[in-house]
Amino acid sequence: MRFDPADEFPHDDAAVDEWLFAAWRPDGSAGVVSGHRLVGRRAWYWSAVVEVGHPVLHLTEWDVKLRFDPFIVKAPEMWAEHHCVAAFEQWSIGNEGHFAALDDADEALGRAYGTPEPSSADLEWYATAGPSAIEHGYEQAGVVHGVVELLGRPHVTFVEAPARRWRRWGSALGPQPIDGALAHTGLRAPFAFPDGTTADWVLTPDGFRSRLR
Question: How many Cβ atoms from other residues are within 10 Å of residue 198's Cβ?
Answer without folding.
Answer: 12
